[in-house]
């Protein structure tokens, strides 16, 4: 069965108050996004486009802070200003304007968005990425520290300003460290002028559903205990627009007890309100943090992905799906169910969450009288056709439809699909590799000797861990040296045996047609990695699951034998896609947006350990220049006439291979100015060369392990 997704061309109906149109005026109504003058009926007249201003203040904060007074015991207290009730479990968070999700940006196609970001995070840099916005005229506004800008320093302020030329459901989020998973994100919805043949009656801001998996603590301590000890990486719960039941809420409920009869306090759930007989566009936006895709269903209701039939949907981190719900059931109250899969399923934390669909005039706060008491009951009532299913490729028996089988309503640039051979083709394979990752294993704690719970496998692309340079490549290319970059073609060492990290860079010519063959080798776990490309959307042209596990050369052989047909017509357009385990996903795009664009797994624990790379589109001379006063940053490693002598304990240069006792500190005296560089493969002091650090021009010493390895290989 084929369906059509109108990805960016859906019609819009705006029914709330119409505000006077003020052109080129910046106004900020962050706490009341629906009152922002830019939330208006969209016009096809470009003269009516607006410049829409928002103030974002980032800070660390607390769930159920004193702003919440007696919430959840007094329900109305949960709605007080600055109160973030989440699921009623106290923990530290990082937020924008003391809201979670942060303030929504709701504008019309063609508007200019201006966001002044004030960083009040304690001593921590930040940057905001506008997920899905291509930044064609302003690539330096993409919000990736180390690629398109310097991090906004603690105490600093940075103004983002960019146009939104295409309608659609997007979101914004911090692209620094783990801030996104801790609460720094919100929706960005770009509406279009109303169409007469719209498939729904209403497109309301309260029907944007931001959904994500939720940890019991800040992401950083969870990450550290997982990477340096035996802590797990499993989400404890799920939140819907920042609300939900705490994990295990129903555990002490008797067979006949309901929420009403039990009288147990809880944070009011997120409520979607509808009028019987009408239909509504609902925007599902996943801010998924860890490996927790969510199966979404609504009791007794069919969800229609715009202009298609009814589906149950799996939503991966970074994906957005727009659906239509028809309020065609008896007036009443229904559960909207979100069942966590993979690391959230019943093998691990059995995480699930509920929101409520209430028909008017059912009173606010009403919930269904039957309980959804556990993960199993949060499953869709009946598995109809399942859209975007887990680990499934086209051709599998059952009621499935994968992203590769969807059709786009957009027909532009046919050459992307019809050109027989792409101008550039990249095989990018990945798995969790059993390797001594110097970030959390290394010579003192090799992966092969530590006990099972301590072994941590490294998710890599082509056996390379990407490290972000300290200098943004786009805006300070003069500070970079070719030697800092690598990819599988330039590697001189066997990265399947040794840990390899560098600034992982792929380069393509401007306006060329690029094909990525993503291969999930699938040995270590059945994980799913949603990959997100900045600066471009792509057409998903093929997807297949070959086996439990596979290798890129099998797929190459298969392709050369003509056994991998590409979809040549109407292939779906996406910017985030996943690959079935032991299989491949192939996508194509025209590299028509010059710049440096991050491409990465959207699971925060994976991208932060290097599951990503930078795509260079065009030569630097073909890229637009950032404004003259754009902030700069970099390293400070001056050349000195009299190099210091270092005495260093516990250096990475001690390895089991060279006979040192890993349990006792050894000492290594280095006389070079670059002694801070990890030098795992050199147990001898290196010859002092005054120019060694300067000649590498290192923005990030950790980016250099591989360059060092190559260098030493050549030297010896
Ligand atoms: Cu991943």
Automatic annotation (TrEMBL):
Taxonomic superkingdom: Eukaryota
Identify the stretch(es) annotated as Disordered.
657-693
UniProt domain Plastocyanin-like: residue ranges: 82-194, 231-360, 470-618
Keyword Metal-binding belongs to the record: yes
Q: Which GO terms describe its biological process?
A: iron ion transport
Is Transmembrane helix found in the keyword set?
A: yes
**A Pfam family recorded for this sequence:** Cu-oxidase_2
Output the Gene Ontology terms for molecular function.
copper ion binding; oxidoreductase activity
Membrane spanning segments where? 696-715
Q: Which residues form the signal peptide?
A: 1-24
Q: Where is the composition biased (Polar residues)?
A: 657-674
**InterPro entries tied to this protein:** Cu-oxidase-like_N, Cu-oxidase_2nd, Cu-oxidase_C, Cu-oxidase_fam, Cu_oxidase_CS, Cu_oxidase_Cu_BS, Cupredoxin
Ordered alphabetically, the record's keywords are: Copper, Membrane, Metal-binding, Oxidoreductase, Signal, Transmembrane, Transmembrane helix
CDD domains listed in its UniProt record = CuRO_1_tcLCC2_insect_like, CuRO_2_tcLCC_insect_like, CuRO_3_tcLLC2_insect_like
This entry carries the following GO cellular component terms, namely: plasma membrane
**According to its UniProt record, which protein family does this protein belong to?**
Belongs to the multicopper oxidase family.
Question: What is the protein name given in its UniProt record?
Answer: L-ascorbate oxidase
């Amino acid at each position: 069965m084929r369906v059509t997704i109108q990805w960016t061309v859906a019609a819009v109906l705006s029914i709330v108050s119409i505000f006077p149109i003020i052109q080129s005026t910046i106004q900020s109504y962050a706490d009341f996004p629906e009152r922002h003058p830019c939330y208006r009926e969209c016009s096809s007249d470009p003269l009516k486009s607006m410049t829409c201003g928002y103030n974002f203040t980032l800070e660390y904060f607390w769930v159920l802070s004193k702003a919440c007074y007696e919430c959840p015991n007094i329900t109305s207290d949960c709605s007080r200003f600055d109160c973030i009730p989440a699921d009623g479990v106290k923990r530290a968070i990082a937020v924008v304007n003391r809201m979670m999700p942060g303030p929504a940006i709701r504008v019309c196609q063609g508007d200019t968005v201006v966001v002044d970001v004030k960083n009040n995070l304690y001593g921590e840099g930040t940057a905001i990425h506008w997920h899905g916005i291509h930044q064609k005229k302003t690539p330096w506004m993409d919000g990736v520290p180390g690629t398109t800008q310097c991090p906004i320093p603690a105490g600093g302020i940075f103004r983002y300003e960019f146009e939104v030329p295409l309608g659609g459901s997007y979101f914004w989020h911090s692209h620094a460290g783990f801030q996104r998973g801790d609460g720094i994100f919100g929706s960005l919805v770009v509406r279009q002028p109303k169409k007469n043949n719209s498939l729904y009656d209403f497109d309301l801001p309260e029907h944007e559903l931001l959904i994500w998996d939720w940890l019991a603590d800040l992401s950083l301590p969870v990450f550290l205990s997982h990477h340096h000890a035996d802590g797990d990486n499993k989400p404890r719960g799920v939140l819907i627009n920042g609300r939900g039941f705490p994990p295990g809420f129903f555990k002490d409920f008797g067979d006949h007890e309901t929420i009403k009869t039990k009288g147990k306090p809880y944070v009011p759930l997120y409520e979607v309100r509808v009028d019987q007989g009408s239909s509504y566009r609902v925007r599902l936006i996943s801010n998924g943090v860890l490996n927790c895709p969510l199966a979404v269903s609504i009791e007794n209701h069919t969800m229609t992905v715009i202009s298609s039939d009814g589906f149950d949907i799996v939503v991966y981190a970074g994906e957005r799906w727009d659906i239509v719900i028809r309020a065609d059931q008896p007036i009443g109250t229904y559960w909207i169910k979100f069942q966590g899969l993979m690391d959230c399923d019943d093998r691990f934390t059995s995480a699930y969450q509920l929101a409520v669909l209430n028909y008017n005039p059912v009173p606010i706060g009403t919930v269904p009288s039957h309980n959804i008491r556990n993960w199993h009951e949060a499953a869709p009532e009946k598995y109809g056709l399942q859209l975007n299913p887990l680990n499934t490729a086209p051709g599998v028996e059952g009621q499935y439809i994968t992203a590769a089988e969807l059709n786009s309503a957009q027909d532009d640039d046919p050459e992307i699909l019809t050109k027989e051979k792409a101008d550039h083709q990249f095989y990018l394979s990945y798995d969790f590799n059993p390797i001594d990752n110097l970030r959390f294993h290394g010579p003192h704690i090799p992966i092969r000797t530590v006990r099972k719970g301590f072994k941590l496998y490294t998710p890599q692309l082509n056996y390379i861990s990407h490290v972000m340079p300290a200098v943004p490549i786009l805006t300070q290319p003069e500070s970079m040296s070719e030697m800092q970059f690598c990819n599988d073609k330039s590697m001189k060492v066997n990265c399947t045996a040794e840990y390899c990290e560098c600034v992982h860079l792929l380069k393509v010519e401007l306006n060329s047609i690029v094909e990525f063959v993503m291969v999930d080798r699938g040995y270590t776990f059945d994980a799913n990695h949603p990959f997100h490309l900045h600066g471009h959307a792509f057409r998903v042209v093929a997807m297949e699951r070959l086996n439990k596990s596979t290798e890129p050369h099998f797929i190459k052989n298969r392709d050369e034998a003509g056994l991998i047909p590409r979809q040549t017509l109407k292939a779906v357009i996406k910017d985030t896609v996943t690959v079935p385990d032991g299989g491949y996903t192939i996508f194509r795009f025209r590299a028509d947006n010059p710049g440096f664009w991050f491409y990465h797994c959207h699971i925060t624990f994976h991208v932060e350990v290097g599951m990503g790379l930078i795509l260079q589109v065009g030569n630097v001379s073909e890229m637009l220049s950032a404004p003259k006063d754009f902030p700069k940053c970099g390293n400070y490693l001056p050349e000195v006439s009299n190099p210091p002598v270092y005495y260093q304990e516990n250096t990475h240069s001690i390895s089991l291979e060279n006979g040192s006792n890993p349990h006792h500190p050894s000492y290594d005296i280095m006389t070079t100015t670059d002694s801070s560089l990890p030098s795992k493969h050199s147990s001898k002091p290196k010859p002092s060369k005054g120019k060694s650090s300067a000649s590498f021009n290192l923005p990030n010493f950790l980016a250099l392990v591989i360059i060092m390895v190559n260098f030493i290989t050549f030297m010896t």
